[in-house]
Design goal:
Pro-sigmaK processing inhibitor BofA, transmembrane helix, transmembrane, mainly alpha
């Protein structure tokens, strides 16, 4: 349920910025990170689903969304390593 709310907030922010008239170059940079974050969070969700039998879980929250959207796939790997060795 929280992921649905988070996705709707992101879509609302994108729509709001489009209506306000954010410059195209700034929108391109922001949309790159938002799109990368959405794709990587979907990959984290799939990893959680596939590896649930091995008790592997990466929580999906605001911190992981930000971390993954900035770093991309290396962020997913880093969260996996943190989840295995520190938790």
């Amino acid at each position: 349920m929280n992921s649905v709310i988070m996705i709707s907030v992101v879509l609302f922010v994108i729509l709001f910025l489009l209506l306000v008239g954010l410059p195209f170059k700034a929108f391109k940079n922001i949309s790159k990170y938002v799109l990368r974050g959405i794709v990587c969070i979907m990959i984290v969700f799939l990893l959680n689903y596939i590896l649930a039998s091995n008790n592997f879980h990466i929580p999906i929250n605001a911190f992981t969304c930000l971390f993954v959207s900035i770093l991309g796939m290396p962020g997913i790997v880093a969260l996996g390593v943190i989840g295995i060795y520190l938790v």
